[in-house]
């Protein structure tokens, strides 16, 4: 792509993303109907809308990453507040269709250093995935694992397909080019971009038996 | 403890009572945000479509929360608005200021911000995210209420104590409290403690702001080499951190590496040319280095960016005009004056700039009569007490001498030299003026006498004070301050001795008043001088000890 076309492309993506943002806000203001069946199409549309916004955030981040490397801005944040924020977002997406549980283990310190925006993109992706596949519930959890802060999103779906679980053990991760694959690839990059005292962050995927997505931050 | 219970326990935030301002240049965005806020009970919301409108609203109404888009479209952005609001004391630390920005801009906006907002919201955001962020910020403001209160009253000591309490008792706010305490220590001139604090934070995690803070503390203590290393190090991992280039430039100036200083500043300006101050500094450095083209671009950018802001004054116009004239474009200089006519007419200082620049420009283009008229106008303004910066005054002196009015020229050079006895660049410039009219000898002597008087009074005063003769010292230094009323170093020495004498001999209302006035003058002349914060704290400490309430800071 020529330089000009590339700028144009980025500008267009932004415009799209902002319009979608406005659309999302507008949809949130539509009053809830009394009958549940009347709400269902609206909820689906809301979820879809947010999904598209998340995808656009991801692709913009990828675009930036290929241009200048993943930009990272670490500061101190409260894991408790972060999990609460994730829960509220998930709740606003499910409207009771799926239950959202949270837990923050006692040994999680009051503050931890990470890039809030990047971790938000990674976890949001996991939440959107889980909400799509979960039967009844998802769990958002913060705990300490190997001296790192671990944020997990766990659902009661049939779990990740085998090729995705295999992909993470190879040297070169390749989660496939589908929507889930793109999000996981990005989460993997986000995990690795967190470095502290010689350690890098990790992305761990497992079936427990539902899908468990865990981001470890040193 | 589950999260639900945390939320319930803290749910004391009464959103209905918050007075809110939403600033965005896009009407659809304004109403969408306003509606979103009303969803969680914030109903007292005003909107503004431009920085100017926001400024007017904030001047008339006190807001608890300002939600401002970064792009405002009227030549100013949300960061500039924040800086002006703080600068003019229209908002305090208790006001929540949230910057809304597009994702792609975020790193840039955050890295270039010298004054950080309470938080950034990346577009698009939804109601839950905003609600959660607001909860967190408001809870933090509650925890910091005492600290902000003391800070607002000028009781920095008390604010430090408040931070220490938070550091000990509120692990959630450990880093926030350390960060604020670091800024307090620096503002109080307690640089060694600042250094220790930033090293402590870096031990926890080498976050960029702590590394920048460390470099600032090192620079303030004259540890320039380590400061430079620290900055180069942080810029290696965070090349977008513009404040680090600014500081690097200052460090290099201190190391007399003027080329390196200009390079650092220019690099910062390519990343973010938005700050008026940065462009002004770049202009000054490039001018010192003889790089007139860069100087002209930088001064022009500063004026373009700052035309409607409070950060631009008459000196910026004279700086640009000077470069234009030296580049052989006297007509461009006259055009600059024309464009700025209204601003310059408003003050005697501005009028003096106009008169002196007109003199130089007309002389350059051979309009002798017009030049004479302008010089007469400058004389009239000067006899009415108008004063300009050192460079402008030397130019005026040069014009007098070129017109055979040696005595008036000498008088001005003497005045500039007394006020700038420690500035090589101005003294050299003065020598050039004398050389150009073949009076090297006379110039040499005049400069020697003028600088010697002040230097002698100044040194004598300091020695007397060290011997404990505060009356003698006060006399010397107040005389020096009268002779050199624009020399920050002399004024600060005078203030220092006055405060010492009160400290030792008890309250003397006159001396306290003098000290206060001197420091106010320095605030005006050299607001970022390293010694100023320390002297300000001493003054506050003495005022507190003798139970004197400050009659509001300005």
Describe the structure in your own words.
The complex is a heterodimer of chains A (218) and B (554). By secondary structure, chain A is an alpha+beta fold. Chain A contains six helices and nine strands, in the order H-H-E-H-E-E-H-E-E-H-H-E-E-E-E. Chain A has two domains: 3-68; 75-217, 2-Layer Sandwich (Heat Shock Protein 90), CATH 3.30.565.10. Chain A has helices at 3-28, 36-68, 79-94, 116-133, 162-167, 179-193; strands at 75-77, 99-104, 112-114, 137-145, 148-155, 195-196, 199-200, 202-207, 211-217. In chain A, the strands form three sheets. Chain A has a five-stranded mixed beta sheet with strand order 2-4-5-9-8. In chain A, strands 1-3 form a two-stranded antiparallel sheet. In chain A, strand 4 and strand 5 form a beta hairpin. In chain A, helix 1 runs antiparallel to helix 2 and helix 4 packs antiparallel against helix 6 (179-193). Chain A is globular. The mean pLDDT of chain A is 85. Among the domains of chain B are: 10-143, 3-Layer(aba) Sandwich (Rossmann fold); 189-306, Tetratricopeptide repeat domain (Serine Threonine Protein Phosphatase 5, Tetratricopeptide repeat), CATH 1.25.40; 462-545, Alpha Horseshoe (Serine Threonine Protein Phosphatase 5, Tetratricopeptide repeat). Helices cover 71% and strands 5% of the residues of chain B. Chain B has helices at 3-10, 27-39, 51-60, 78-87, 103-112, 127-143, 145-152, 156-169, 174-187, 191-204, 208-220, 224-237, 242-254, 258-271, 276-288, 292-306, 314-326, 330-339, 341-345, 348-364, 368-383, 390-402, 406-419, 424-436, 440-467, 470-483, 488-505, 509-525, 531-545; strands at residues 19-23, 44-48, 65-69, 96-102, 119-123. In chain B, strands 2-1-3-4-5 form a five-stranded parallel beta sheet, with helices on both faces. In chain B, strand 1, helix 2 and strand 2 (44-48) form a beta-alpha-beta unit. The radius of gyration of chain B is 26 Å and the shape is globular. The model of chain B is unreliable at 1-10 (pLDDT under 50). Chain A binds chain B through residues 10, 14, 17-18, 20-22, 24-26, 28-29, 50, 53, 57, 60-61, 64, 71, 73-76, 78, 80-81, 83-85, 87-89, 91-92, 102-104, 109-111, 113, 117, 196, and chain B through 2-3, 6-7, 28-29, 32-33, 35-36, 39, 102-104, 106-107, 110-111, 122-129, 131-133, 135-136, 171-172, 174-176, 204-205, 207-209, 240.
